[in-house]
Amino acid sequence: MLKIIKHLSLSLLLMAVAIDISAKPLSLDRIFDDPSLSGKSPVQLKFSPDGTRVTYLQGKVDDYNRYDLWEYNLKDKTNRILVDSAKLFTGTETLSDEEKARRERQRIFGKGILEYKWSTDGSALLFPLNGDLYYYALATGKSQKLTTTEAFETDARFSPQGRFVSFIREQNLYVLNIKSGKEIKLTQDGGGVIKNGMAEFVAQEEMGRMTGYWWADDDSKIAFTRVDETPVKEAIRNEIYADEVKLFNQRYPFTGTRNVTIALGIVTLSNSAIDWIDLGKDKDIYIARAKWLKDNKTLSYQWQNRSQQELELRFYDSQTKKQTVALTENSNTWINLHFDLKFLKDKKHFVWASERDGFKHLYLYNINGQLIRQITRGDWVVDSLKGVDEQKGLVYFAGRKDTPLESHLYQTPLFKKGAITRITEQGQYHNVVLAKDNQTFIDNSSSVNKPYATALRQVNGDFITWLEENKLDKNHPLTPYINDLTQPEYGTLKADDGQLMHYRLFKPNSLSHKPNSQAHNKKHPVIVSVYGGPHAQRVTNSWRSKNLYFQYMVQQGYIVFQLDNRGSYNRGKKFEDAIYKKLGDIEVADQIKGVEFLRTLNNVDPTRIGIYGHSYGGYMALMAMFKAGDYFSAGVSGAPVTDWALYDTHYTERYLGHPSSNAQGYQASAVFPYSADLKGPLMIYHGMADDNVLFTHATKLFKQLQDQEKQFEMMTYPGSKHSLRGKHVQTHLHQTITNFFNRHFNVVDQ
Fold first, then answer.
1. Which residue in 615, 633, 669, 675 is the catalytic one?
2. Catalytic residue among 155, 383, 443, 690
3. Which pTM does this prediction carry?
């Protein structure tokens, strides 16, 4: 793989030379300015239901943050704008607090069309804009405003047969008959602490479940959750802005405290009658997923206990009212949730993903829950199920059979044992969307120094056309900087238990191009860029625009090092499970292994090795500075968790267990027992309106360090959430980080 990466780097270099563009040094202002150096990166790529279009969102030329809906039309083979957001709505979009929080958790940012839904027959589109819903008919090219209320409509979608639009308004579930315009209010008691059809906080933030309702395919009924927040502790949360302080009474499920009370019901459209499902005696549970079977009378739902060590896939027959457990997953640590459940059209089988053998793989079951066969196996992980071709008996999935550093599309037999065939090209990371007919797929591919390019391909991998080539030609915004981008080195280190950890090393080009020069013998400062937490992977062969900051720092004379320690994702359950019941311990030990490796390199200055991370990475930076000050001489901690007792139930208890059974683990996993050992310079930054890692995490640590008379630096951002969005904030933040390391490592800004 390294040979492929090196070949790609040479190709990019020759391309830049061929178009006669002089290399430019990166600047922080340019990295975070428009147009993005990533080039054109279409988002929310989808096939239209009839398969005649590929649709995606793309920013306007004169306003990169305002998105329109574009299409590639497969019939006439042209790219064009399909729906101009300005023709639907102009002006300032005013969001409800609930919708702001929902978009933050979905990582949806920008203006204009940010979400869209296709009708099942492909004749119409649905857009939520400024709290109202817009219906767009493709045949006429005209839009119709479906709702005009003062209230905010959200989580809108077409019914499967296309006769209705469903949505949430004022915490109740509604449907609207498209033909007649008549609205039906399906639930009545929503409001205050009662939320119908809505995903609760931990479902959105930690389970990846952004909805609380699910249509049956025949439009006859809807399954939905009813959430009662009464048991959840009410906390006063402040958000500090430049000119005001907002106070929120938020029901936040702090770890160890009570969660919402959740009920699961089925409402029939014809009479609005609700059938409540018996979830069992244990009320302290999670509803992780729900999905209808193909018979339109059986609802599947995934029931998870509070410890997250048991998960049941249950089937509820809405006609007989009988319930069965199709399968059960158990773990001594925790069970990772997934979306890889597919009921086949034959109504006899379903495909399911499990980590029961230590790695996530696909399994085939018959409809009564009997295991037929394990479809994939090996010491590698399946990322996600992409499609099933029942006629040909093939399964398509994204996975990492060839390398954990790249995601590829594969196919393998469904019903019988057979070879696994990789479809996508090695040397790149692929995000794919498979068409419903399993004949074509959208291939969004990149590599570490090559931004995403989007192609349409046949299911065997053959190229059909570019949807967005994003070619690095003279017009591409990244091209002037290509010659100065360094190609990172990849490698592996052994953890204490013998497991392999992957690393990535960004070094100044002078160290590669002039191995015998005086510059090669120069000792460089190092920044260890860390995340280190579960469900994340940083060392990949893929494009991330954030890596441009690493390139900038390399051009200032730094070496940048990344190591995916144990506990991180896509390496199997044993690799993850090392952190169970005690956080900030194994991860720091592994990062020390990384520093020990760095100290063996001739061009590394062992006295100038710093660490920087955000979120869990901010927590890791603190733990490294407090527990391993002999290895890390300076650190920057961004939006860090400092006390896991201040974080939410589902995330924290997954890894630490309940505080009542692991009080020692919670104490040992907080940063406070170690802060007295701080030796080197430390900077902490935090958004002052962060509703994920509350600003209290930072202020609690500020106070302890002050009480201990420990000097530190801090930077706070009024009005900023956890992601610290906005080019001015991001530019200022990275200037602050750079200045911090430059001052303490005696580096002159180039």
1. 615
2. 690
3. 0.94
